[in-house]
Amino acid sequence: MNSKKISFQGVSKSFPLKDTxxxxxxxVSLDIADREFVTVVGPSGCGKxxxxxxxxxxxxxxxxxxxxxxxxxAGPGPDRGVIFQQYALFPWLTVRKNVExxxxxxxxxxxxxxxxxxxxxxxVGLADxxxxxxxxxxxxxKQRCAIARAYAVNPEVLLMDExxxxxxxxxxxxxxxxxxxTWSQERRTxxxxxxxxxxxVYLANRVVVMAARPGRIYKVIDVDLPYPRTEEIRxxxxxxxxxxxxxxxxxxxxxxxxxx
Length: 260
Ligand SMILES: Nc1ncnc2c1ncn2[C@@H]1O[C@H](COP(=O)(O)OP(=O)(O)OP(=O)(O)O)[C@@H](O)[C@H]1O
Hints:
This protein is of the alpha/beta class. 33% of the residues lie in helices and 26% in strands. The chain has two domains: 1-79 and 156-175 and 182-254, P-loop containing nucleotide triphosphate hydrolases (Rossmann fold, 3-Layer(aba) Sandwich), CATH 3.40.50; 85-154, no CATH class. It has helices spanning 48-56, 95-101, 110-123, 139-152, 169-185, 197-203, 231-234, 237-251, and strands spanning 4-17, 20-33, 37-41, 63-68, 71-72, 80-83, 157-161, 189-193, 206-211, 216-222. The longest helix has 17 residues, at 169-185. The N and C termini lie far apart (41 Å). The site of adenosine-5'-triphosphate (ATP) has 12 residues, from strand 2 and helix 1.
């Protein structure tokens, strides 16, 4: 087991823009430990999705290196489950079939596929809806289905890009608790992007605050609060103190040093 599960080493990324290059990420270095839960916050356009997309192998690497378990990322792989804001479920398949779908590429028997899908469905609390079609589910249930699908493949790393962004505030809080329950039962390394400062603090071991122009890491803030996280913790002075620190780092960022 590698204690550095995900390692970004001097990662920069530019996109062509008219006759120049737009620097989306500049020299990002970050190690995420095995089974750590890291959240990433920062202003719009600071490169959060680009960073995660590169770790997922969905965006071409720029310069620098991204290592998963010490190996450079060379495309998507079953070691990484990716969950986006849009549920990306197949509307014509039931919850169970949606969850099983992700396992079709694995060389496992249909019985094992079914068993693993059922376990993941149980894990996210959707057992009563296993045979329902997505259109009959609420947004929160759809997202739980997407999480179950990612978990069923048994990836060591979960990359989540604003997975709760489209949900109402109450459902969002409920899904945060659900995700933490799932994570505590089957611990994975999680990198989770959010715009919500409370969510970032509530879920994480560490919050990575990014800054824009160029996209870079601005500050990394430890969240020294015990798990399981509870409402009591959410309302505690210590939570408030960390939340204020993250808030300040996101909304009152010092400008970037001018390029030499
Ligand atoms: N394929 C692309 N071509 C050109 N520019 C891009 C491309 N993808 C991203 N960018 C630019 O790179 C920057 C970072 O984008 P990215 O989506 O990673 O930011 P983000 O922090 O996730 O933003 P948001 O919080 O709004 O989702 C943005 O300025 C964006 O316009």
